[in-house]
User: What shape does this take?
Amino acid sequence: MSRADILKEVTDIFIDVLDNEDIVLNDETQAKDVDDWDSLNHIQLVVAIEKHFKIRFTSKEIQSWNNVGEMLNCIQEKGI
Amino acid sequence: MFKTDDIFTANFTISDEIYNGFISVFQDKNPLHTDHQFAAEKGFQSVVMHGNILNGFLSYFIGECLPTKNVIIHSQEIQYKNAVYLKDTLQFKAVVVGVYESVKAVEFKFDFKNSEAKTVAKGKIQIGLLS
Assistant: This one.
């Protein structure tokens, strides 16, 4: 899957979980840039992404992410 | 602590105390729940128990029946399939369908069955494990 396709699917997950049709993500997007991307919603986002792509992250991996781009890198590294 | 396909079971009975307590606390006295004639006219054998009583049982299950007390409910969905009546004993079963170590979350699918083995409600619940 191309990085653009992964970004689109991740964006759809954000829109669904955060119930906000206006969300636009790019590599530099951080939690502070997205309304309601708080610690509890972060859990729901990670669970939804793991389910959608049928992958599992480690806690070390998710703690290393500083932005959406690093999240996408991690998804790609799992062979998606 | 939790593995996919782990199964947890419990039995819950809707006692007078639970039924009357629910009405007392939440004041939902809709005739479907309190008027036998009204319920009969709608095709039910007796007054129908509030669906959210089952959510109370779910709360008890998560809070008291799991191998750890370090839990918090993240989300839950429930579908009601058949009416539940006063004094019914429900067999509850929850199966672990997802373990998300990265965010310390566990997802269960659950169902409640009545004494005729008919599913009265089913759904999903996701919990978090507190550090």
